[in-house]
Design goal:
alpha+beta; seven-stranded mixed β-sheet
Amino acid sequence: MATTQDVRLRVFSLNCWGVRYLSQHCTPRYQMIADLLKEEDFDLILLQEVYSEKDYLFLKRALSHCNPHSHYFKSGVIGSGLALFSKHKLLDVFLYRYSVNGFPYKAFHGDWYAGKAVGMVVVNIGGMIAHVYITHLHAEYSREKDAYLPHRVAQTWELVQFVRLTSAAADLVILGGDLNMHPSDLGIRLLRGYTGLVDCYHATQNFQGCPDGATYIPQNPFTSKSELETFPNGIRIDYILFKGSATLAAKCDSFSTTMGHVPGQPFPYSDHEALSVMLLAQRQQKKQEEEEEEEAMASSELLANLIDTVNEARTEVKVGLHHMEGMRHTAMRMGIMGLALLLLEMLIALVPWLAVSTEQGFPRATFYLLGSLSLVTLVLTGVLYIFYSTQVKALHSTEEQMRLAVLRLQEQVTSRGPHSR
């Protein structure tokens, strides 16, 4: 039973597409975003792809009156792009960087250089402690041949564990960002099943926006139409999720998205659509034993489904681990070849010293060229071997964590006995 009045919390999330010199109309779009945020007066603002600190500082100045508290999460080479603005004071801030994040030699994808991560802030909202998480997972560059699926699943697992292990004391948990996954994808099922987070799109009865809540739509002039050929209504890859606690009930009162254009403006805010939700939170009495037992019975089936989901995720991670081990072995073989060529060059260099007489001088230009190529091959393959070794260890660690998680979940199902049916 509720004991206090509702706390209304407005949350906004947007992938700003703020890659300077590559994204179109960056400066005017940031001005449009600032104007929108000042007008709407949100409690929490979660932004992704704010890759330039200058753009963050511009927004910080613009929102200093309505959202005076902010944090910019720095990571990687060019930065995580994560920025959070709040009407309420930030009590704690932390950043966790994902252990696997694509490949540095695929520069056009850029995810590795961004240092993808999850940022967490703790805020006190009228005596209610809220843990707010913001993240941006690895992009999906091909739906048919998704080479980064194991990386994204591993990132989701780390996100799940991070949220689960850091939010135990929270009254309210909020997670927002560009997850780069469709609603039915493995990662989303894993995230919702393991953390208990609720998708605002499914939780609200009052939705206004694109069909199916899509946030990457063909009507937006900035989107790649070739990526959406098989999705005429667009795709939903941006999310706001939430959950309450034993002493606080939370629900999503309304949820809306932008729709590919801004009235009176020549272009939209970004290549992604913005999300805004209204959350209602209310203190409640602790649940009685009978209610807790009913919930335990209802959750038995959810546990069984969660075991299947974790096993499926573990399989994907194993596929990625096998692929990464193969690439590491290839780098090792190439390194051995480069070392063998370098040693051969050194032996050839000794020929003039061992010969009694030589009628023709040694072709030094050829020697130096081949020697340089051998040395470069050896160095590059050595660096790649080290990189692949770190990825193998990270994926192996994730797979082991998933194995232990499955065992723990199976024990929970078994211990409930008749309740599991």
